[in-house]
Fold this protein.
Amino acid sequence: MNYLLAFLFGGLVCAAGQVVLDKSKLTQADLMVILVVVGSLLSALGLYKPLVDTFGAGASVPVSNFGHVLTQGVMEGYAKDGFFGVFAGGVTKAAAVLGAAILFGFTAGLLFRPKG
Amino acid sequence: MNKTFTLKNVYVEETASVVGPTEGAGPLGDLYDVVIPDEIYGESSWEKAERKMLIESIGLCMNKAGYEPADFDMILAGDLSGQLISANFAARDLPIPFAGIYGACSTFTLTVGMGALLIEGGFMDRVIAGASSHHETAEKTFRFPTELGVQRKATATWTMSGAAAVILGRSGPVRVSEVTFGRVVDYGIKDANNLGAAMAPAAFDTLERHLKNLGKRPEDYDLIATGDLGSVGQIMLKHLMGDSSMGSGNLTDCGLLVYDTRQDAHAGASGCGASACVFSSHFFPLLKKGHIRRLLLLATGALFGLTTAQQKESIPSTSHAICFERVEES
């Protein structure tokens, strides 16, 4: 059941993105930013956490989850460290994702020598 | 009306083409001189691969005609990469005076037209005109890094990997008889995924001026071939021609001849290589054998850059027309 729910919601996000790309003049980069911002807004309204709880990886794998993590980090940072926590919190919370992206990107670059 | 040049003394002596594996698997696959085994062609970068293809096409053309570099007065060549690095670096290996010429995908008929006028004017006796494009270098120059794996839109053309060279001289089996250089036309199309639509008005503008200047009709040519309008641009050109009193004539598009539909190339092939390779491998032999007698080739070019596309400017386009005629044996 977990797999099915994850597939349904994750697939829905991707399908919606595909419709936007096909029907509008937005680029892939535009769409990525939109997903992050939407995730961030839903998170701020307290709506993203229930999605992750219900749909698991279906909600946490799409890039909208990155917006959710950043927003939660900012909120937690503010609660813990006050004003400066707003700036540090997002990156602190997302540190694992950022670190992994850099490590895997670097490793792939070393192995496959990109030419594009 | 800006001039159309009519020429009496310029001929295509020989042609050669080198294309990528996808192009080699297309309908014209057997006609190209060389089909390279893979896009990288044993080099360490796409740029070096494209350069190698251009050098090879020029060398092959010289060999086929039995000439040495000293027999040429000039090479005119261009490509799609920034600062014309394929043509400029190719010329480094060739001891012949060189001018790099940029006309985007219209480069081939631009170099042929300029070379032909240099010969007709009596300044030069033998000139090489060439053009190259490479799918991966063009993606990098105009779109996204290839590793990003961005989805392509159905209206997008596929920049072909191909280089071709022709030798222009004072005798040969095919004559260069008419040249009309293009004005730069902009109908306000901003979609870099739909270059055919941006270039169709430019092809129409040049075609209309060419025919008016000479008092001719489309039917006076056995074949009118545009460069790389693709399926979308060709429909637009047919509409523009139908709306004028011109009629349609026997219209084809080099970009639509390169791939078959199973190759999933969307709107067709594009790039400097399209008109250059299709002329060299397909039209030139047809003219030599007499299957067609008069060909009007209108290579089309979208004169935009990545920066102007990102700044959401519209796409100015151009097209240069050359009439190639079979020399009848007397």
